[in-house]
Amino acid sequence: MSSHLDDLFNKNREWAAKVTAEDPEFFSTLSKQQQPEYLWIGCADSRVPANQIVDLLPGEVFVHRNIANVVVHTDLNCLSVIQFAVDVLKVKHIMVVGHYGCGGIKAAMGTEEHGMIDNWLRHIKDVYRLHKDEIDAIEDEHTRFDRMCELNVVEQVANVCQSSIVQNAWKMGQELHVHGWCYSIEDGHITDLKRTVSNAQESLEQMNKM
What we know:
Elements: H1 2-22, H2 26-32, E1 38-43, H3 50-53, E2 61-66, H4 76-88, E3 93-99, H5 103-109, H6 117-130, H7 132-136, H8 141-162, H9 164-171, E4 177-183, E5 190-192, H10 200-209
Parallel strand pairs: 1-2, 1-3, 3-4
Antiparallel strand pairs: 4-5
Function: Reversible hydration of carbon dioxide.
Keywords: Lyase, Metal-binding, Zinc
Organism: Marinomonas rhizomae
């Protein structure tokens, strides 16, 4: 086991040396201050590396990840990240990014028990309950699965917009846009789900459409 961990340290040193050779000022610049314009709320899936997908440097995107990119109003971890991003970093864009083929969505759509994580997946089951008629009407299993991944993003965008943090930012006139995207692991492309919300009025209109 230790040899595998040693490999990670070796790869780290090789990576740092390579980056420094390409840009001698990279780490000194990065260490001074982070000023990202983007907060990425994504899935913890190891196949979905946030800054690489949009070809941004580490200091250019602030990231929060959890199973199935869920935003819950009782999750102090997620809310703390949003508050820091909005109130301190003054990000202009919050992207809720799901991905097709999400294991968390698949687990939530099934009946198998998974232990403690079932409590977390309950939030995704609630998304299914809200959109049951649409989901059940889709005959193709793959298409139905993809649509659930999208609808989960739609609901999480609504949760971000309804948070007191975002509502207060809009109330104070702060520029802030919330977006809903879905990423495909198969081709690396992001799909814009056309759920961008930029103020409290738009947030209310989106809620009324659901």
